[in-house]
Amino acid sequence: MAENILIISTSLRSGSNSETLANEVLKGASDAGNNAELVSLKDKQIAFCKGCLACQKTGKCVIKDDANEITEKMKNADVIVFATPVYYYGMSGQMKTLLDRANSLYISDYKFRRIFLVTASAEAEKETAEKTIIGLKGWIECYPKCVYAGEFLGGGFNDPNEIKGNAGTMKEAYEFGKGLC
What we know:
By secondary structure, the protein is an alpha/beta fold. It has helices spanning 17-31, 55-58, 67-76, 93-101, 130-140, 167-178; strands at 4-9, 35-40, 79-85, 114-121, 147-155. It is globular and about 50 Å long.
């Protein structure tokens, strides 16, 4: 049965290695027969959460920007994949801001049950992404109907578009996408 898979690319850099991986995951998920969509934060306006908690009463954020449309897509996805560069051993600031702004989902009847992570980093060691994984797992713990389902770590790539030259990593990302469901 086809699932609705939402892939959120959180890098703002042109030629981003994490977005390149996200696109390969998208191809794999689509080729496996799923309804897959990629949303890039690159041209989106997403303000910081004000902490007003109005969303906990209304189910919608009071800030009128692109985060509302993205969180609605998150709410209706069966599977969410976050793709981020690893900056200083953590997720991108844009990803953290989106997670904060998704607070309205907490009281909703969200559909997502599995959350995956895709990273790209200059260092190739698995430990490079540990704090990124921990940060995402912290968000997931607030959503009891879903689980952290795994990650794809693309390490050893620094320059824009560098990852495109590594056929093995690209194929692994594609296969990761095929196996999301």
